[in-house]
Structure formats: structure tokens, C-alpha cells
Amino acid sequence: MLNYDIVIVGGGPAGLAAAVSAKRNGAESILVLERDKELGGILNQCIHNGFGLHTFKEELTGPEYAQRFIDQLLEENIEYKLNTMVLDISKEKVVTAMNRSEGILEIQAKAVILAMGCRERSRGALNIPGYRPAGVFSAGTAQRLVNMEGYLPGREVVILGSGDIGLIMARRMTLEGAKVKVVAELLPYSGGLKRNIVQCLDDFGIPLKLSHTVVDIKGKERVEGITLAQVDENRRPIPGTEEFYECDTLLLSCGLIPENELSRELGVEMSPVTSGPLVNESLETNVEGVFACGNVLHVHDLVDFVSQEAQAAGKNAAEYVLNGKKEGGKDIPIIATQGARYTVPKTVNPQRMDEKHVVRFRVGDVYKNCYVSVYLDDERIIHRKRPVVAPGEMEQIELKKEQLEAYPDLKEITVKIETE
Amino acid sequence: MEKRELVCIGCPLGCPLTVEIEGTEVVSVTGNTCKRGDVYARKEVTNPTRIVTSSVKVEGGVLAAVSVKTKEDIPKGKIFECVTALKDVCVKAPVAIGDVVLADVAGTGVDVIATKNVIASTS
Amino acid sequence: MFDVVVIGAGVSGSASARELSRYDLKVCVVEMEEDVCCGTSKANSAIVHAGFDAESGSLMAKLNVEGSEMMEELSKELDFHYKRNGSLVVCIHEEERDNLQALYERGVKNGVKDLRIIERDELVKLEPNISDKAVAALYAPTGAIVCPFGMNIALAENAAVNGVEFRFDTKVTGFEKKDDYWVVQTSKGDIETKYVVNAAGVYADVFHNMVSEKKIHITPRRGDYCLLDRSVEGYVTHTIFQLPSKYGKGVLVTPTVHGNTLVGPTAIDIEDKDGTNTTQQGIDELTQKAGETVKNLPIRQVITSFAGLRAHEDGHEFIIEELEDAKGFIDCSGIESPGLSSAPAIGKMVAGIIKDLTGAKEREDFIATRKGILDPKTLSKEEYAALIKEKPEYGNIICRCEMITEGEIMDAINRPLGAKSLDGVKRRTRAGMGRCQAGFCSPRTIEILARERGVDPSEITKSGGESKIIVGINKDNL
To answer: What's the ipTM?
Structure first.
């Protein structure tokens, strides 16, 4: 049995930032377990630029952003293992992992940080009817093939889903010589950044069809075409609106799902909204000493926020290892309602929190000229005007310790979107 | 007087912008709700530029390809010329972030540089 | 010259080949696809029917009960997944009880053991998620579930080990009858054989009608299915059928041997013998009908939907016989449900016919057992550690959803009749069968397939033929 203060599951942006932060906050022995052959996680295949404006005040590509954190990890002499899959985490925080050279490893940790990231929703989960030929890829799989292996997965492409990955892949495929015929989006708005719509679609004359979905896939061996149809307000296809597109490839960019199989087996309580763990202000789950950060906790829009969140998780895990569980105070639930879908964290303890605490959330729809409001029981303490909020972008508010402590009988905090 | 319609990329609001151009001069920008829209529109109609990212083949490295980018933004009209110029580029490992992969791509005066470290394979 | 050419490497063809390989016969299986188990055998309910469904006295009833009784032993011999989980035919309308009783009586007549009718109280204890409308059920403890890929592959592999030759990507195009032998014309040349076994699934009528004046007609009857994630394992533990009634036939909800939950099938008669496309209508119908027998169906946990084609012959009966007007041509056609359940008995019957015709002798060197792909998850920690030490590839997880190692994938590729495609690997190891549906592992599996087979990754297909995954290299047409 190996022994470490902190074991971090995942060596992507969250795991890297958490590890560095834990070390800098006093944790002695830290081990990062990464299943891939290199550190950096999904950033390695995100070769487009636009990462790190908040963190480094410059626009980096994914691999460059990852390298900044990898360099920090190396400077801090933090141990890591590559090609290592975590099989199990026990309540006693014994992490079982496996790799080729060492076989099955059992590692006793004082604290565990979950940083496994997320996966893409598959064609099957979307239940798209039709044949099941080759040529249907999740956008991320295609991204890996093109960007890391140099292979073209298709020449004539239709993309379903206009989140940022779908948009980015439209440009990537185009620049590698493929023809992207159309990007379809089920919702009446795109979840992607405006910048990506302009620079990944408009620049290349790729049409974006909102309120459209794929209703049929043709082709018994390789995709030969797909049929798009317009959808009604209940997102059901409208008969008679079908349009056939000849293509050899369908890329799917239809949402990300936090990868919490290990967390569930460990007994971590999950949010049905985020599919990530429910955490307190320390980003600690209901299992003591088990923390979560990054896309395994909730899917982020910008990697900068993943890094920030992970730094907090690393710091909190280090404090837990050094000082044990923080006692006292009362966990106040944060209720997300009226347009706000969820919050991370789910509870905050005024006595144990830092002077300021960032609460992140997402909205369920596009709201224009609205207010982001926060109530302490019935009293509104934040009322911030926003020209627009959209589901594609994470929102955040800041809670102040002194503000919360002024309400000794506080029962709940409410976050909502208001029209006035 | 020429009119150009743009969508602002500054924030999710995506203001529809109308730019009036006289020759090469921007006469007016309307439709924006903040200063960023104005700045974006003026740049986009007079000198639109982009950072181009791609990947090129690597020889003798632990990975088969290395990601690259133009060190600075290049004229939008040069994007395809830029990626085509990268078609036959093959670099030898080791490659470090910032290494010039192709100098002065497509006559833009801008270098294409590596954005990832690729170490040499031992075998 | 072969003694026997079997057309089709589905479960009937493979079971027949395996039984034939017991005898001193030269046997060849020709298959138009790139692998075994590519048609009806790969897309069905994956259950072993107890045998109360088929009409008493029919060949279907006889072979179903026989096959079902042989299955457990066979699964041990050939090392494939089988579980006797029991089945329930649920009655949701009080006035349909007569039908339930009739089904019970038919089952008894067919020789199904341990059948009984249970009341709602007991039913709810067996299946807490049973519909609130359920009033009673026919309980068949001998009903079972099986891995249809595992079974088909095991049969074929064992046949191959015993000397049966398999020719893939070989499409039969016609027959020529010579005096005492047949010439089977294929896309890859002629094959001479004394006997032909027609186990061509939905295509069996095409071949039958080429040689016989007594025409048969097979309708591809499409069944759409939804497969749910293992995260809802235990939602049901028995195979749950709806009692066929004037309200319709209903769909079944069943666990699979690997812990998924399967919902299906629809029954839609089509023309296209390759029409395995699902439709929105079909998927909607499943969800609605499954709700009749169970409650709170976690349909949102769907990880894939698929469709299979049953080879429905107009007479709704298995046709396993030498054709009167085409001597030496043995039909094994009309094999629809309960075909999978009956397969062990079908194989035996086909081999029996040929044995009687040829007087072939049993071989002494027949190898009756086969070891499947080692699943390291079944090992103790010590054994597993020792395995990785000896073969490090077992320490490298490739499919994270099903936790499948590189070692298992290499075994799948390199064993007899090994996997050549992503689907071939999937059906043998379950890599790519999980909740991410190969999003994570497919680039990695392509790499392993290319390496082990010594080909370029661009040659690797999803399922043979034109189903290439990679169509070029970056910028190749710029």
C-alpha cells in the first residue's frame, strides 16, 4: 500500500491546478493519476486558441495552456503516474489504480480530489434514429483524430450541436480540407460563443440552422447522408420540414456529461441537474475528505474557471490534510430558482467560509435585460443588471462572509433571474 | 456609401451591427450597445485578421503530429493559403512550444510556431 | 470438394457448423459479412425462451424446449455468458386471465418445466417496478438470458478449431446442381460441395427459391430496441413480457447478461433485407408499450438503440429439412424467434440430417470445449497482478466504460476467427459497448487493430466493407 496526503484523479486542467495549489498550501505528498499517455487532459486536443485570457491575460491554445500548469507541477516536484486508470475509490480513501508497469496499485490517501472531467453525449444517448454506419462521431473523437493523430474522419460533414466544440470542429474540418455543409442546433439559440459563430462558421460560409435536428441517418456501411428537420417549441420534429444532406460524416456536439462513475460507486451524492457531486463551500462532497473540481463537478464554459475552482479544491484539500475537518457553523443551502438551474457550491457555511466566496451557476434560457439576484431569506442583497445571460455561459456571484454573518438565523440563500 | 452587416463577437448579446463605409473610411457604426462593438466593427471591416491554428506532422516524436499556430493574427483572406502552406511541413522531434515551424507563412511576415512540446521517441 | 457448405455464419449456421465438426466431414461456412454474428443473430432480445410461446406440436416448440434445456451446459462447454433469470408474462387486464391460463397450458403441453401462474403480491415481490396495473403473471423459472454475440462467436470459434473453414466477405450468387454435388457460386469464385446448408437468415428464401420450385417467402420483420445503461442495473431482474392480447403484443423489458436493461422489440414488416435502421416512430412505440408492464422506466438512461430483422417465413415455422426437389440442399430457414433459444437444437438437427445422408462417423479428436476471452475482472487481485506482470497489456484499460484492457482486445484479434473491425472487437470484448459508445476507445482500438493486424489505421473499418473510420489524412486535398 502506497501512502499519500492527496491523490488526485485526473491530470487534466482541473487535476493539474488542484495539485499545484495543494502543494503550495502545504500538502506534502501529492499524487496525480492520469489515464492518458500525457498530462493536460482534453486540452491536448483543443489546439485552437482562446484559452487563458482570465488567467494569463493572453490567448493561448489548449496545449500551451496545459503546459503552463504542467510546468508548475514539475517545478513543485509533484508526483504523477501516466497511463494509469483508477478502478475504485473506497470510503476509507484507498484508491485502487492500474497500469502496465506496476499492475494494480493500492494507495491510501488522506484526501482525494475528483478531477475526472466529462465525456460527450453519444449518438445512442441522443437516440437519433436511422442506420448505424461508420462516420458518426462525437465532435471530441473527431477532434482527437484530426488534431492529435492527423487523420481525417470525413470529407463532407454535417454537425449537430452548435456548442463551442461543434463550432470549433466546423472550422477545423474546413481547414483540413473537408466541406462542412451545415451546423444544426436543436435549440432556438446557439450555446456557443458569438466569436466562434462568426469565426468558425461565418468566415467559411457555413450555415447554422437553429431549431433543427437530425431525424434520420442514411448509409448502411458509411454515412451517405442525413436528414434534418425543423423542431417545434417542444423540440419535436415538424413533419414536412425534412431536408436531406448528402454527407459522409455526422459530428455530434450535443452536450457533455460529468464522468462520475467512480464518484457514484464511492457513494458521493449527485446533483440531478449537473450530474456532478453536490459540494459545500470547500468543494467537499458528502464523503469527508473527498473534493471535486472542474468538469466532473459541473461542465464549465472556460478553462480559466476550471483552474480557479481546482485551485480552491487543492487548497481546501491541503487544509483538510493539515488541520482536519473544519467544525462548527451551519450549512446554508443555496437555492437556484427562476432561471438559475443550479449553483456550485450547493451549501455555504458562513462561519467556515473565506471572506469572499464565488458561487457559480448557469441559467436555463436566454434572458435579456434581466437582473441576477441573490436573496438571504427574503432580503435581496445582490441585484445586478445584465444585458443578457445565456445557458452557454457560466454566471457567478460573490458572497461575503460579513454579509452572511449579519443574518444569524439565515435559513437559505436564493439565486434567481429577475426581470426587474 | 457601402453598408456592411456584422454580428458583434464581444459578448453573448451578439448585437447586429451596421457599418457604413465610404471608400476605406468607416463613417459610422450603429446597432452596438457598448464601445466594444464599435471597436470590433471598425477593425472587422477595414482589416479583419485571425489567428490560424492547425497541426503538422512530426518525425521521430512520441506523437505523430504537433499543434501549431500563427504567432500573430494574419489577414482573414490568407487563412487557406496559410493552411495549404502547412500541408507538406514535417518537423523533426524534439519540438518545443514556440519553435518556428514555418517562417513568414504565405507572405504575411508571420511565423507559424509550435504550440506543444513533443519529445523524441526513444526507439 | 467440401462435404458441406453452410451459408451464413449467424447462430444457426455456426451451431450447425459446430455440430457438423463432430463428424469426419469437410465443412466450409460462407458468410457475406466480414465476421460471424452480423445479421439477425446480433440484434435480438438476447433471451432464451422457456418454450411456452410456440404452437404445441410445432418444430419451433420442440426445438425451443430442447435448445433451452441444452443451453446451460453448452454455455459451460463453450464459455459464453448465460443466466437463468426466469421470465414473467404479465397480465395487465383482469379479463385477459383466460389467455394467461391458455399460455400456461400450452407451455405445459410443450414440456416447459416448473411453470406457474403467480398473483400480483408475489409478482411485486419478484419485480418491484412492475406496473401498478399488473394483476398476475405466468412465471417460467427456466427462462434465461444469454450473450448472443458470445454464443455465436463461441460456436463458430469451436467449429473453426475443429477444422471448419470460414470464408468471409463471400456472397453466394447462385447454385449449379451437378450429378452428385453442388457448385456454390460466390463473389469469390465457385465452391464445390456435396451438401449445402442454407442458414442465410433473412436471405434464406432467396437461396431456397434458386434451387426449389416450392417457393418460400421470408419477410424481414424489423424489431427496434433501446439499450439502457448499466447504471440502472437491477431495474428488472426477470425477463418481462406483456401478455399478447387484443390490445397488442407489447414489448419486453429484460436485463442482459452484462447488466444492461433491454427494451424491445417493435414488429414492423419491411421489404429491405438490410433495413436495420431504427425510426423515431419505433423508438416512441417502445417507450410507450414498455410502460404497460413496468413503471418509471428509466428510458433517459438509453445508451444506444438498434434494430434487428427477424426472418419471418409466411408459414411461421422453422424449415429444417432436405429439399425434395433439390437433393443435397438442406434448408435451415424461417429461423425467427425463438431461433436463438433453439440454436443448439437446430445445429444438432441439421448435423443429424447430414449424418443420416452421408453416414459420416464421429471424430475421436473432436474438441468439445472452448475457452472464451479471459476477463481479468473475474480474477482475484493476486491473479490479476500476476497476469499483468506476465502480460502488461492487461494493465492497460482501453475502454473505460466497460473497463476492457488492451490484453482482452489483443486476444479478441488474435484468436481463431479473430476480430478485424471495431464492431468485431466490440462484440467479443464489449469495448465500445458502454455508455460513451466508443467515443473514448475507438481511436485507441483502431491503433491496436492496425498494429496487431499489421495494416495502416486507415484500413480499419467499423464493420467491414466500406465502413471505414478514417477517410484520409489532414490537408490531403488542399
So the answer is: 0.94
